[in-house]
Amino acid sequence: MNDIINDVNDLKENILKSSEYLNFKKSEKNLDNNKEVNKIITDIKKLQQKIIKKEDKNLDAEIEKIELESLYKELETYNDYIEYKKNARIFNDLITNIQKNFEEYFNSFLI
Fold it and tell me: What is the spatial distance between Cα 36 and Cα 44, in angstroms, rounded to a whole number?
């Protein structure tokens, strides 16, 4: 059992040192520091809430949905956001692969 705990701790340490994680955190920080992007994200969240409230009351939210789509398109024009999405996807792929490998690792103990 200690071997498994040690392996998990080693894995965690390796993930935190991985270029995938470091690139993701760097792009996340850049995104956080981009005031224009943060304003768009804030506007998107507010608009999403407005749409939900309208739909809950069975009101038409088509104008808000069009505006929301426009904000998403604008967000896609910022390099910080594009880089963040790319690095998030790469990091997510790494974690997914690790989970799959660890499932196989744990299953080998069950046999």
Answer: 12
- CB neighbours of residue 80 within 10 Å: 19
Where does residue 78 fall: left (phi above 0), alpha (psi -120 to 50 degrees), or beta otherwise?
A: beta
Q: Which residue has the tokens 């790319």?
A: 86
Neighbours of 18 (CB within 10 A): 15
Instruction: State the DSSP code for 76.
Output: T
Report mean pLDDT in 10-residue bins for the chain, 111 residues: 80 92 96 96 97 93 96 96 96 92 79 61
Calpha distance 17→19 (Å, rounded): 7
3-state helix, strand, coil in the chain (%, to 5): 90, 0, 10
N- to C-terminal Cα separation, the chain: 15
Phi/psi for 70 (5° steps) reads: -65, -40
